[in-house]
Amino acid sequence: MDNSPPLHLCHINRLSWFINRLHTVLHSAALTALIYYRAFFLVNQMKTYSKLSTVAILAWFLVFCSELLLSIIWLLDQAFRWRPITRTVFPEYLPKDLELPAIDVFICTVDPKKEPTVEVMNTVLSAMALDYPPESLNVYLSDDGGSSLTLSGIREARAFAGAWVPFCRKYNVKTRYPEGYFSSREDDDGDIRGTDFRDERQKVQEKYEEFKERVAAAAENGSTEEPRTTRGRGHPPSVEVIRENTMLKDQILMPRLVYVSREKRPSHPHHFKAGALNVLLRVSSMISNSPYILVLDCDMHCNDSMSARQAMCFHLDPKLSSSLAFVQFPQKFHNISKNDIYDSQHRSVFTIQWQGTDGIMGPILSGTGFYIKRRSLYGNSVKGPDLVEHKESFGSSKEFVQSLDGKYRPNEIDEKTASKAMLQETHFLASSSYEQHTGWGEKVGFLYYSVAEDYFTGFNLHCKGWKSVYCDPPRPAFLGSGTTILNDLFIQGTRWSSGLLEVTFSKFCPIIYGFHKISLLQSMCYTELATWPLYFVPIWCFATIPQLFLLNGIPLYPEVSNLWFVLFPFIFVSSISKHLQEVLSTGGSLETWINEHRMWMIRSLTCHLYGSLDAIMKNIGLREASFIPTNKVIDEERIKRYEKGMFDFQTSNMFLVPLVTIVIVNMISLVGGIAKVLVNGNWNEMFVQVFIIFYSLMMSYPIIEGMILRKDKGRIQPYTTKLSIIYAMTFVIIGSVVINF
Question: Per-residue DSSP letters for 357-419?
Fold first, then answer.
């Protein structure tokens, strides 16, 4: 009998179980009654065909379809709340350092103009400073832009790491990315705070400032130089081991650091981030071939040096290890204001949904901050000795196929004794043509079908029987840069919406493809995320149809005196009160609830709409997939507005005009509709429609403020407002003519 202490424990929050399930039952009963009421009314009207016109019946039908779609998405969402759990880890019970498995860290960057080199190198330095045996730690930076500035930056970072990493280990520094450590107001001065410590801290800080100055100087000098990546021509592959495991004077080993820039040619698809990760997967197999991989975005710094050991508490659990694919940590951000006006922290995902999936199957792969087992990415193709079959899946590299054996250990490579043959092999593996006629992106590696490669890859792993776990320690394991500019949020949200719907419209639709492969609750979770962008349909409906029919005096909801009326306030109050309860129980406030609700409506009217259209166009072959990296460059003026809680409307009219048009339509409907109700005296019939408009305008206050009250640079420009007025008036006039025709 094994008496060793557990590496982790699972905790069930029974109060959350009870509240969630009770709410699901009550809310479902109300929705069922609502659907019955709508269906019965429509059937009755079709039979009598006397009280309402054809247009009015059509409006009723559209509202009914919107309510039905909202109900279906809500029902799918309840799978996340069925069995929420939390976990506690005990890294002190892990094996000795010499027995811990090796880890490769993959960091991806694209454009130093949008992803500042100093910030990227902070991520690299924080990964090198993880509390993990240095001989078992290898850090790889993928530079998809082939930038000489990034290459220069990683060389400078390696030089500074000689001072930074030993300092962090010697004094047990908590915050291990230098920018955060030296600018932090918190007490993070390690376990020793004597004179020697302060002197050494000052020296390291001076070296860090010199490091930043050298990177800045390289950026200035490089701005006039010819970039390695020439637009339209791509660039060749480049792999450079910046420095091998070198013994320092104080006998402290340093992790291996490798720069990788894959070949990119216009004639070959490069598959964005998933393609870059697959190149790292192949190249690293020739250099370190570690059994576990940590994937990080270039701005996602390691905030807790213990994250690797925390992940190993799950990966090394003998009861779980054989079926565990990855350990997912939450995404948290260092630059989010207290108000979080754009809902950039995604509170609901990382505090509610992922805890819920952990109680079912484990969380969904989330793009960054996860420790994944290398073997899980190779699928079932690694089984068996058939070399020919392996080459069909993994390509023609014999050396790479040999690395599929878990016992395989690559030849030693360093900057002085590097094997030319091995370096040539890494270049071959990083070439743009290597994946042709192989299973990369389809059967093995990170999958290419969608720009949401994390979601699609995680879904396929779960369908193959792999599990995952969610680890949310008290101290955030990783801290990134959240989206604090509205324009970037729109671009990012459109990309996510498009990627998710690509899966929905394909043969891999979770509710169908996963039906016999994963549990019903698992399928519901994946389907809810995949159909999440479809919120644009009901939100656009509720933002226009009740308003237009209020102006024309036609009711779409039961009278206040009608018994069926009770359903509508009950469903509304039930929905918002449950959301508020979740916000408050996870440390949020009433203001957090308002901002999340507002941004849900704004995203539905913009990102979800354009993302859905983009997915449809790609599905029918009218558009190719594209990927625009989120801008990480700090704009001080915009940041000040964000921290004050002011929306920055410096974005494309493609996003702004629909928003402003909808607000103006609601303003017109409120004034004209209330006037008509006062004249006709039919408050009893029109109450719900008036309430919808009033509530919509309350949630739209920042837009109204940007149109009318603000005069700063971040306001909505007069031209945008005038254009939106024209669209709004056109919609109201044409709509009224059609209704009364």
Answer: HHTTT-PPP-SSSEEEEHHHHTGGGGSSS-HHHHHHHH-S-HHHHHHTSTT--PPP--TTT--
